[in-house]
Amino acid sequence: MRFGILGAVQVWDDQGTPVSVGGPRVRALLALLLLNAGRVVPSESLIDGLYGDEPPAGAGNALQSQVSRLRRALKGIAEVESSAAGYRLAADPQDVDAHRFQRLADEASGRGAAERAALLDEALGLWRGPALADVPEARGQAVRFEEARVTALEDRAAARLELGGHRELVAPLRELAEAHPLRERPRALLMRALYGSGRQGEALELYERTRRILADELGADPSTELSDVHLAILRGEPEPAAGPEPGPEPVRSRVPAQFTSFVGRDDDLARVGSLLRDARLVTLTGPGGAGKTRLAIEAGARAGGTFVDFAAVSSGEGQTALARTVMGALGLREAGVLPSGERLGPVERLETALGDRPALLILDNCEHVIGSAAPLARRLLAACPGLRVLATSREALGITGEALWPVRQLAVPDARATLTEAAAAPAVRLFADRASAASPGFRLTAADLEDVIGICEALDGQPLAIELAAARLRALTVKEVADRLGDRFRLLSRGDRTQSPRHRTLRAVVEWSWDLLGPEEQRLARRLSVFTGGFTARAAREVCGGDEDLLLDLADRSLVQRTPSGRYRMLQTIYAYCAEQLEEAGEERELRRAHAEYFLTFAREADPHLRSAEQVAWLERLDADQENLHAALRWALDADTALALRLVGVLASYWWLRGIRSEGSEAGLRLLRTFGDAPPPEFDEEYVVSVALVSLGNQEVPELPSLVARGEDLLNRIDRPLRQPYLLAMWALAAGPPKDSDDVDRILSERDPQFTGHPWNQALVEMGAGYLYLFRGRPDLTEPYLDRALAGFRAVGERWGMTQTLDALSTTAEQAGDAPRALALLDEALVLVHELGSLADTADILQRRGDVLTTLGRLDEARASHLSARDLARRVGAQNTLVAVHCGLGDLSRLEDDLDTATALYERALAECPPRWYASEIRARGLLGLAHVALARNDRPTARTHAARAAEAVRDHPLGRLLSQEAETLLTTLTDPV
Fold first, then answer.
1. Mean pLDDT, to the nearest integer, of 143-164?
2. DSSP secondary-structure letter at 501?
3. pLDDT tens, 308-352?
4. Residues 6+ apart with CB under 8 A from 350
5. Helix/strand/coil for 31
6. I want to staple 953 with a disulfide (CB 3.0 to 4.6 A). Which of 515, 632, 685, 924 is the partner?
């Protein structure tokens, strides 16, 4: 043996001579390494073990200093190895008395009585005194070893009883029983030793004394083992052969019965059960109303736990008050003394009562007494090896070895979910279950589904809030509940009268958490309500003035949630409460402005990256803050129109690339009407951007022609590089091609001052020239420009430019009659547009692809492509694409001789066609389709009318040449004699 901790810490050299190790810290460090001999011990664990809750400044350096001293002391005996993870004592665990003791004790199990006794003699002979006697920092481990030593003494006594050694065991067993007065197994063994020695009366008297001690101290009856020995003695049965004795009986389970079904937490329940098997302390964290208590009760009931509610304990109380609450839950009496006459306090009483007995304590509502609950849990876990703790709190207890399980909101289904899918979602299941209890006639139907999903989503899937909302169905309809959630604190103000006050209403739940915050935390929390849809630590610092440590404190206390991406979010109910506090503090206007200006700066930072290979990454960053960007714009529209105009100008490229133009269109129209015909000179470009957005939107705008004319005039006067280079692409679609588009060189020269230097700008110029030549019907000149544009966009890695150029090249191929090449180019564009994530552009490419597949006669594939385009176009409100899909599907129906369906689709296209110049081609397609249907029905006058209208509609469209030729050919056919 070279190392000893079963007594004072000791080291021996090869000759068995004790070696001096050093002072208390070095011995404590050695003990911690010996407990894990041969394994790496993390530096954090060593610091925690050496210094406890108050490590010195520079604890890492202090640890290294102690390691250096230990290495000098162990030179030539064992190495202390270091690694990035921590430190390791390079020693065989069997060279440590504690590990050898445990191995011998384990080997004894299951052996015959004689061999068992011999092995346990050897194991117990390793003890030199109390384990870790000179290392107070390892008290918890010392208690564990002491428990193992007493168990070994009991096992050895049981083996010797089996061998007939009753008389010689009476004295040591009496000593053991007196040393552990509440431990029942030594007393059962002593009763058997007395009985086997012919001292039946003493054995029965010992039982009575034991029964009284257990009743006085624990309020408990003797264990089955003790009672069985007592009964056997009374019956005069032979002293039974002693095999391996059972361990101590577990503490009786006491968990309150529940009145409602447990819904939606099956996965959580399984995971918490798994954690309880692997860890001695498990803490369920989460905001108020998340369902922590119910989950703890369900998990604790399965594991045989005892429920302890700290809700009624005042926040200023210490460990003594909490210990009394635990004693009450366990059914322990307040008074009582040990046979020695020593009176125990509540904490010591718990340590004595629990001892080594298997037990699970469910400590509920720890957050307001966490300063006392954490030390109490730590002390009990250290002193009671068989104890496990399941705690609930809005923040972690912060104890080494604590396993955390954040209790998240119940899953809410997507708004597009079917009735069957939604009914299976946990949040909806809970609402339906509680609603049927409140209103027995309630059944989830398709008519209520949208409102039910909306309620669950607005309440963040929080169980308590959902239950409160469902309870309102006693007096309100589902729709009325959904409509009144804007004032959720008034609506959800009636709960279970038997619950604690802080769980009766939604406001009380949030106020409980709010009141636990300090002034600095409250200030930051209320200011964070200015954000919508989440925020970064940087945004919180810049807008609200809170450092990240304070933000992390709020996350630890479940006031905000940290997402896997590193962003933060606030539940809507907490957001609503904090927003009230912000308004009451008189800070709202100041914070709203700071919020809007921060996101203007952020959008400006992002904009140049949208024309680079980093395009997708920055689009995702803008997506993450889309709600903040739009909230900033909405506030600025009411409070600062100049700021709003700046936001519209810089956000236009983001909206353009993502295909979410309705937000910009509505904001742009409002600003145009605010500024009238005379925008401030410094906002000329932003004014033109607003006109473009309005033109690309779907709303009816009577003054649009005059707005476009004003925008064209302003754009032509700009003789500097554009702040928003995407503007020219947007303007080309908004205003249409120049009236004199034949003079390509002049048009390009006029635009040249607006572009300088950047390769993306040059690629856009090349693409614009390609489109102008495409409008002129000159494929020989179109393709070289488009090829150079494609190469330029590829060089900078910009996907939108590549997609648009490929689309133009496919149109060129289609006009040349090369449909296979057109399809290949569109397929390449489709891959890029998927990477870009623009649903509007994806829908457009899919629609174009459907038309080409129709030309190739691949009708089933064409229909699938059109239907996919239709679904996407509906999702994003891409009206022009949707109308084109109607025409494409109409063509397919006509080719399959389903003339009625074709007619309906063409007429729908004409009815929904937006009044914009770029829609005239689609209008012509619908009219030509109706002409072909009329001709198939031999209605030549109607066919001629539709064909003439189609020719007129497409006359001025730059890409309408093929449709124009088709219409003229059809008219010629219809005017020829039959």
1. 87
2. G
3. 988 778 777 788 889 888 888 887 755 444 433 445 678 887 887
4. 323, 326, 327, 330, 332, 380
5. helix
6. 924
Instruction: In whole angstroms, give the CA distance from residue 60 to residue 813.
Output: 70
Least Cα distance to 848 among 887, 901, 799 occurs for 887
Give the orientation angle of helix 572-584 with respect to helix 588-606, to 10 degrees: 120
Q: Which letter does DSSP use for residue 37 in this model?
A: T
pLDDT tens, 96-137?
Answer: 998 899 889 888 887 888 888 999 999 999 999 988 888 887
* C-alpha radius of gyration, the chain, whole number: 40
User: What is the distance of C-alpha 692 from the center of its chain?
Assistant: 39
401 — alpha (psi -120 to 50), left (phi > 0) or beta? left
3-state secondary structure of 309: strand
Q: How many residues does the chain have?
A: 978
DSSP H or E segment with residue 10:
strand 10-12
Contact 544, 536 (CB under 8 A): no
How does DSSP classify residue 473? G
**Single-letter amino acid code for the residue at 963:** L
10 within 8 A of 98, measured Cβ to Cβ: no
Q: What is the pLDDT of residues 520-579, one digit of tens each?
A: 988 999 999 999 989 999 999 999 987 888 888 888 877 888 888 889 988 888 888 888
Neighbours of 930 (CB within 10 A): 25
**DSSP assignment, residue 56?**
P
| Residue 542 CB burial class (10 angstroms; 0-12, 13-18, ≥19) | middle
Q: Which pTM was predicted?
A: 0.65
Cβ-based neighbour number of residue 393 at 10 Å: 26
CA-CA-CA-CA dihedral for 697, 700, 702, 703, to nearest 10:
-20
